[in-house]
Amino acid sequence: TVAKNKKETGLVWSAKNVRNDFLDLRVPVWITDLQFISDSDTTKLVIGSKYHQIRIYDTKVKRRPVLDFSIGDHPVVSLIVGDPNQIIFSDTVGNVSSVDVRTGKTIGQFKGFSGTITNMAVNTAPPSLVTVGMDRFLRVHEMDAT
C-alpha cells in the first residue's frame, strides 16, 4: 500500500505462535483484544484470547510472546493496562480481575456485574476503572479498593 506521503508502507512486524505443545501439536490462537502497554512505548503489546490466555509481546525482543499465562477458566473478552505491571481483564461470565504481569497471579477482582463486560477504560487521577457491559450499565470503580 502507499501512504499519503507516497512512501511504501507494509508489514512492520508479525507475531509468532508459542511452541507446539507436549504432543507436538500447534497451540490454537483466537485473539479477542489487543492493547499497547504504554502510549510512549509502542513496542510492547498485550493480547487476550478465547482460550483464557494473556500474552505479552515485545517487538524489539522476539516474535514469540515474552510472557504467556493462562488466566481463569473462561475466555477473555476485554482487557486494559492499569499500570505497566497490572492488566485488568474481563471474561465471558462477567468477571473483571486485575493480574500482576510479573507473576501472572490475580491481584484482585471487581464486583457488581451481572453480564459480560464489553469495554473498559482507566482514569489515572483519581485511579478508577470505568466499565460497560451487556447488562446495559456503566460503572465506575475505585482502583485502590480492589
UniProtKB/TrEMBL annotation:
GO biological process, one term: ribosomal large subunit biogenesis
Matches recorded under InterPro entries: WD40/YVTN_repeat-like_dom_sf, WD40_repeat_dom_sf, WDR74/Nsa1
Gene3D superfamilies: YVTN repeat-like/Quinoprotein amine dehydrogenase (2.130.10.10)
Source taxon at top rank: Eukaryota
GO CC, any one term: preribosome, large subunit precursor
Family as reported in the entry's similarity comment: Belongs to the NSA1 family.
Self-association state and partner proteins as the record states: Component of the pre-66S ribosomal particle.
Signal peptide: none
Lineage of the organism: Eukaryota, Fungi, Fungi incertae sedis, Mucoromycota, Glomeromycotina
Protein name as annotated: Ribosome biogenesis protein NSA1
Organism: Acaulospora morrowiae
